[in-house]
Design goal:
Three copies of one chain form a homotrimer. Chain A is an alpha/beta fold. Chain A contains 19 helices and eight strands. In chain A, strand 5, helix 5 and strand 6 form a beta-alpha-beta unit. Chains in contact: A-B, A-C, B-C. Chains A, B, C: One of its GO terms (molecular function) is ferric-chelate reductase (NADPH) activity.
């Protein structure tokens, strides 16, 4: 919904009545798609081509001419050519003098060339005003106009007037324009269409790895063990029971992995006695993907909730209900039918902590939506993400402890001497919570705060300027 | 949170100390609301009226004078008059020479006039700088200041300076300004307040139609049939059981309707051998409402999930549990109490596919939030919406197949020779998935890719420019 | 993703190759953090300090000199000093003549000083171009670059060129720039980092108050009463059963509190016969926090749903299932095992209304996301928030009535002569719905509409301008 340029279209809006001609260099797909779209928006379009008479089918109503002729006929030239073919433009420098060149090109992969295509173009034709634009749009969009994720046109360039002209055209095509500043931003714009969730790769790998590991681990512990020992086949458990053991485990571990780097960083700063030395790279990278880790953890928690809630619907469970011996997935030891108040307490707190934890989880997820987090001041954001985040971690860990309770005492919990899954997944969160607790101790907290306010063990700063951060 | 203009308020911020006077033409509701608001923000306000002495109650502290006198007293004039009464402004042209005229008017319905009100105004007073602004706000907002959905003021005009002046005023009133470019955008701004979910109409009609049809269909099949044949009244099923059969059916059909047009389009392109011919209108319209279809499908899926999860809470079900003969909504055939492992497999996979499908469903919904989809490159967006979308469709279809399983074999499934609902709702998704599968076959895929890259069966394009899209 | 300035970086992008020097006044934490970041972005940094030779550790590669010397060396000066120490800048006025001064300071609390720091600075050095910027960022961000909630740099100032220069720097640092207009906006920017959910305070207090009250009320009614009378300990109910009684109660009350002020306002306008008199402050304040009230209500409803859905998982319930006497939380009176169709109807409609109510609830929550509500016209937004809002309230109230049904007839529902919770929570919503119904009566509706369109009982406005709002 944002449009961000200052329009300079002349007061006598002749532009609206009699369309100025636009020129497109290159009759490839992009050129034709763009031309078609421009025609539909009421522009006159002229193509510049190497061989104007055999350049394939062009949108009806447009004509093709030599590059130089086409350039002369319009003030705005779209360069829909591969960067490899740019060099010939150098010879057109005189005709392109003072023209606005719109570079729409993308590369097949990142860092293919030392400089951005647009900067290269500017170097070739110094007299022209190069504007990088439209390259973040799909050809489908260029042909058919804006759609959901394709409403925004990013542009950058060194000449304000040139950008305004391009922006004007873009809005006429129905797009929303976002000015990204000078041509130095061109590389960023050219890399944008190439990215496919770069910051999600690492967290996804971690998630997949953990899931696979625990799946096989529990498969062996539960299904295979039962088959080998008792000889009865409970492989159907793979679908729900196992999934519902793996998902919460992965979710809890990943949630704690969001908060581990922060704790490590704090101890590192305490140890170094300063905050002015950079962290090791692995820690930096880790910190940068905390948001993604958290969101994946939320996804797993969400699945865990659904898997838990459909338990009563399972044939397996319904079938059990009808029999004298009631055995349930969660609390296996309870076979006596006498009412045990302590058990009721435990079962209910187990469920409550889980629900409250999940509720906070969802809240964290909502605040990490771009539009929500942008509306928050960083004080509010850090309050939610750190204070509420640790509360979430605490609830979920408690939830797991209540689940385990005294299971770890019974030898039956250690088939083939393997630890139960919930014990394994409790390690990291417990460590994080303990470390965080240590950091909250007055002595630790005080010196950490001082360090974060710029204090340096080696030499103190004059007070007048120190507490500026407070 | 965005404000998008370059402020030009003078360096000596006299503006802040001694308010410049603003003029409002028209003492109607809008005029008074606006005036009140301006006063509260510390402006001096002067009204221009046809009959200054009998123009109804004005906000205290303002005075009314003749239009010409008022015009002279201020550099900025808000036109709070109906378009029908604009004509008299022509006579004021000399006094309005060089003034900034803010057109806040809206029309009662779209396309009432050949040109936008603001453009009409500009034509009447060519010497003035017309700016379209504030018309997207409710009068309530104009009177009481920004509220949630009313934070943004869209403006457009041909003079940058004029727009900056208006923008400055708007920010002083606490609004966020979005520049929509030249006056040509006025029509768009004037149509904005009139729209009431235009792009939702068709999908909503489809949803309502499908729901109504299946409701009655199942009502006859289940409730009425039982009543006629066995004579017992199970009308209470309408509330939950029936709803929980209808919602998933509608959801699945609508989800597949999101992906059907894409498949049709692909086959159309293959058949035509080019992508440069426009699709038939019905297909275009269909494609444009895919997002809304999907979101409605998600809503129905959401209800289906809730309806399913509360099944154990139903008196009807709880009552059954206490009786020897346990019959359940989902798996009626299972009356034997011997444990059937195959049945367990089926029931669990049925539930799992449902959960995973719903999880992906929700993911698709989240990525279609404006702020999220804007943060995605079109490559990421299309990956999510198409790849994950088809996966979702696949899971949900599988979920339904597992639900049906071998029901269709039993004659009892065909009361009055009618097909079960789940069979009817499987038709469309199956077709879509099969067609999609065909498109993924190497031969099809290859030629489709070539067409999408601009290849044309009639005549090939030179390679140099072709693969620009890849 | 938005950047909003017009770049003016010179055509020959020398800036990119040979970095211009930037000057930082103040070697405190903020100064050093900022300097470090600027260095990493390829700028040359010069510090101005009172005692250049003993100003603590500076980032390697920077040098410290006297304020005046530093000022001369750069065109852009970051003022990283406390406002208390600004006064000495007055003496530097000649050296700072024409320079761009970036005021990054914040105060420890609001309204500490009569004027904004930036405005004070401008007054001290009238010859310089003061720009307020970067103050909304955390020092962590200034040191380590943009992160999620810290991508945006708000700036304001009276000189467009000065703002462009700062904006250019900010984008080079990887930030997104939002221009907030002239220096008059400085105070707003300075207050921004201090706020911690101001508009959430009141709603949160209400929520906590209501929750606490009903918790204790039901604790006495249910747990303590049972213990005193029958002597058996059902304290475990606190965890789930009680919570699941309190949350829906609070949720319904808070939802109705969203709509009560609107109804009161309407009656007030009807009584006064005009809309041009301001509402009492308490009503204004109330209306301003309706959104927050609604979102909290949604949160409670969400918890209620989860608590309800896990009921079958509770040990307490599972334990009951295995016994002849089945008694459930929701419908206690049903101990007979004969199937009661009326009861089935009631139980199912009770669940259905709850689900549909919750579904609409969620829809309301989604439309109040900033990015969604910004995409809606105010007509659409008010349609959703008022029409659908009342429908939600209606469903939830009906849900509660169906829950209560004829309980209120049985004396056992009044232990110690206390009313059941659901009766208490039905009061407000019922009142709201009744009042709203009255307002929908033709006579009321007509006169209210006329008042809202600017009609005034004292004196009518001429029709020509009245219906401008319609």
């Amino acid at each position: 919904m944002e449009s961000t340029f200052v329009s300079l279209c002349p007061l006598n809006s002749a532009a609206a009545t009699e369309p100025e001609p636009l020129c497109i260099f290159g009759t490839g797909d992009l050129g034709r798609s763009l031309g078609q779209r421009l025609l539909q928006s009421g522009y006159r379009v002229v193509y510049g081509s190497r061989k104007p008479h055999s350049c394939g089918p062009l949108p009806p109503g447009t004509q093709a001419m030599s590059h130089s002729a086409a350039a002369q006929s319009a003030a705005l030239v779209f360069i829909c050519i591969h960067r490899e073919h740019y060099n010939f433009l150098e010879t057109l420098a005189p005709q392109l003098q003072g023209k606005v060149l719109v570079d729409v090109s993308n590369n097949l992969k990142k860092n293919l060339y030392p400089e951005a295509n647009a900067e290269y173009l500017q170097r070739l034709v110094p007299g022209a005003h190069v504007v990088k634009a439209f390259n973040t749009l799909s050809a489908w969009t260029l042909q058919n106009g804006p759609s959901d994720a394709n409403r925004q046109v990013y542009l950058c360039g060194n000449s304000a007037e040139a950008k305004q002209a391009v922006a004007e055209t873009a809005t006429k095509l129905g797009f929303t324009v976002l000015d990204r500043g000078s041509l130095c931003a061109a590389r960023e714009l050219e890399d944008f269409p190439l990215q496919l969730f770069p910051e999600w790769r690492l967290p996804l790998r971690i998630a997949v790895g953990l899931t696979a590991f625990f799946y096989f681990y529990l498969l062996i512990r539960i299904v295979i063990y039962t088959y080998v020992q008792k000889g009865d086949d409970i492989s159907f458990r793979i679908m729900v029971s196992l999934a519902n053991k793996v998902f919460p485990i992965v979710s809890l571990i990943m949630l704690s992995l969001c908060y581990l780097p922060g704790v490590i960083a704090a101890f590192l700063q305490l140890y170094r006695g300063t905050k002015y030395r950079r962290f090791p790279d692995w820690l930096d990278r880790w910190m940068l993907c905390r948001k993604q880790l958290g969101l994946l953890a939320l996804a797993f928690a969400f699945l865990h909730v659904l898997y838990t809630l459909i338990i009563p619907q399972r044939y397996y469970v319904r079938n059990r209900i009808k029999h004298p011996v009631v055995l349930f997935i969660k609390i296996k030891e309870n076979k006596t039918s006498a009412f045990d108040s302590a058990l009721a307490w435990r079962s209910d707190s187990f469920l409550s902590t889980g629900i409250l934890g999940f509720g906070l989880y969802v809240l964290l997820g909502i605040t990490s939506l771009p539009s929500v987090s942008n509306a928050l001041s960083w004080r509010e954001f850090s309050f939610v993400q750190s204070k509420l985040g640790y509360l979430t971690l605490f609830f979920c860990t408690l939830h797991t402890y209540l689940y385990g309770w005294n299971k770890f005492l019974k030898p039956t919990s250690y088939p083939w001497y393997t630890l139960p899954g919930y014990l394994l997944c409790l390690i990291v969160p417990t460590v994080v919570l303990v470390l965080k607790f240590l950091l909250l101790l007055p002595c630790m907290d005080r010196s950490l705060t001082r360090i974060r306010q710029g204090w340096d063990r080696t030499n103190k700063v004059d007070d007048g300027e120190k507490s500026l951060l407070a």
